[in-house]
Amino acid sequence: MRRGLLLLTVITFVTWVGTRMTAVALPLVALEETGQAWTTGLVGGMAGLPLLTVGWWGRGLRDRLTGGRALAVVMGVNAAGLAVVPVASVMGQVGAVALCVSGLVTGVAGALLGPAERSLVSDLADEHVARGGRTGPARWLAWQDLAHRVSMIFAPPAGAWAVTMWGAGALLWCKTTVVALAATALLAVPAGRATHQEDQGGVQEEATPGRPVSALAVLRSRPQVAAGVLMAGVGGVCWFGFSLGLAVLGVEHDMPGALIAAGMSGYGAASVAASLLVPVVIDRLPRMTAMLSSWVVLGAVFGALPLVTPSLAGIAVVAAVGGAAMPWGIAALNALISEQTHGPDRRAAFTAETVLHSGGTSLGLLAGGALIGWAGSEAVLLTTGLLQIAAAVGGAGWAWKAHHQQAVDTGVRMAVCRAPGGKW
Length: 424
Fold this sequence. Notes:
By secondary structure, the chain is mainly alpha-helical. Helices cover 82% and strands 0% of the residues. It has helices at residues 2-34, 42-57, 59-62, 68-90, 96-130, 137-166, 168-186, 215-221, 223-252, 258-281, 287-308, 312-340, 343-375, 377-418. Helix 4 (68-90) packs antiparallel against helix 7 (168-186), helix 8 (215-221) packs across helix 9 (223-252) and helix 10 (258-281) runs parallel beside helix 12. The chain is globular and about 65 Å long. It is found in: Cell membrane. GO terms for molecular function: transmembrane transporter activity. This is MFS transporter.
């Protein structure tokens, strides 16, 4: 089991590095081949459509992605989608159609792979612990998140260097090859063992064969997971306040690009540093408290950014506070899902997390420019910060209340069951 977990972590790191490097090359190839700036975002834009709708079309597929072989097939589809653009470039046929096809295919694969990988990590880690291992799902998921965050630091500059040295087309071929090799490596990852376990309410989970699990039903039955997913979703929608808000704020202060660079650098460096510590202590952290604290701190950071503008050092320091807080909330949510769900429910919960957070980020960026143009960057930063704080406080309060009520209801049922003549 440990070998499979290590392999999954390495694959996550390598593929995320390739994805961030490719993000530098794709717009350049599109612009060079088509000569039209509007085509540069087609791949990324089309890739977001499958993600937003995966809860509908992916319900019957996600329950089949329980092992390395199944994930290898999806990763192979991802490689095929990546190959569309460089192949079309060789043929001189790069256009809107090729870019849209590449985006849709890679989007379908990506929407399935993320939740499936986290679910498989949790399954294998559960089995690892059952066999006497000491490292459970929470730590392995935290290591996987660290692999994702480390790629934010050096992959974009490495991509820019590779484009300068090799050219954008060569970098796309390199990414396609790396993903194809990752698909081959996934064949060595074993399948997670299907288990029936008890949730915190003491009710045994049983999946109905042939009937996909509803993500909404899973969240309704687990208020703490639902609250964490809500916080992540609102945070994703509000992210444009940081990225677009700082970019526009820099222009307004005659410092184009400087504020967003300082903010992203501070945020990224601090998040990686915090991610190094998270796996060590994640098993000792109260889940809801960690999620609440992370999103409240990030919301406060959004509101504080205009106060330190236009100081680059101030922007970097304040953003670093948010970056240091964020890994704890994400790790706590992943740990909560791995602890309270199993089997199909687990895959449904991870899918809901991905759709609401990543899909919310896409929707926020889509509408964010217009909102900033209407209300102003400082007002948007303050508003998005307050929204994140409100979602965190409201979600945590509701989850604690619902969890307490569930505990009371369970105690009443147990008392009735134990009473003379009582029935369950």
